[in-house]
Amino acid sequence: MLFIACPIHIPPSPSSSDKAAWYISDAPGSDLPSSTLQFESGDINKVIAHIKQHKARVGAGYKAIIVVSGTLKAKTPINKSMISINSPGNNDFPPIVLRGDEKTGGVLDAEGKMRILYISGADVTLAEGLVLKNGNSAIVNDSFGGGVLVWGGSFTMTGGSIENCYAVNGGGIATSKISNVGGSGTIPRNYNKVSMSGGTISACTIQDNCNGAGIYIASDIGEPDDELYISGSALITENKVGGNTGSGGGVYLSGKLIMTGGEITANEASQAGGGLYIVAWTGKAELNAPAKITGNTANQDANVYVGTNASFINNGAVIN
User: Fold this and answer.
1) Nearest Cα to 250, choosing from 236, 231, 271?
2) What is the rounded distance in angstroms from the CA atom of residue 248 to the CA atom of residue 112?
3) Bridge-partner residues for 71, per DSSP?
4) Is the pLDDT of residue 190 over 70?
5) Of 189, 150, 196, nearest in space to 173 by CA
6) How does strand 96-100 pair with strand 123-126?
7) Which pick of 4, 30, 125, 281 has the fewest CB atoms within 10 Å?
8) Is 143 helix (H, G, I), strand (E, B) or coil?
């Protein structure tokens, strides 16, 4: 009798496809990962803690690249957020890039339980392939930034998306001038910078009669302006302010905006500035071709509202 040996199947070690992994960038200034894995976990905050602990591995000009695979969901909030990148001394982290896996993409889903991302004293970029969705800062008793709160730091979008987030003010992204918003201390905060050259902010909402469903940029008289830069293929769309007196469906600006591209379209405000609301005295906006602010709705000045003594310059941007 002839016996034929069957091949032995050894199952792979258990692993989750829902994880975050970090790499050093493949070149100075690059937002792409090298091939050498530094650390991975199903808990993205453990990955961030590992980056902080091993900051010295990231050479001058390089970045820490976090690649998210699958869907990571909310756990216990840190600084009222699903993810906290918090550097009180402004020097605890290298520049960090969040991106989705190039094959499967990635999702950070707060499930309506908390804000998604809190940034303090750090430089963070949202890049291609990663979706941030279902953030809610109001439910954790914080007024600002359902998707992202920037408090004394820098946030850049070159790709990815922020979707279906909710807050009292700043459904998608907010900057804050309040010294302890999102955190537990009273450390004086520096000015904030938000840049958007790609990606999408969409379907974000705020509490009725409040401000800035898509983006809320804060500044006070006598303080440095928080800054917003919009360019390239950036898209802010279908964000909505309800009630009777809410303003800034796309962007509520009490700081400085320079827009050289991108589009703010199909947003809605119940009172004024469905696309862009420029706050009296503190708002400063410069729009340049080929930027577009079109097809927004509001009871007053559907696309752009300019408050008393606010600064507004249009160098060929399309507004209609």
Assistant:
1) 236
2) 22
3) 107
4) no
5) 150
6) parallel
7) 4
8) coil
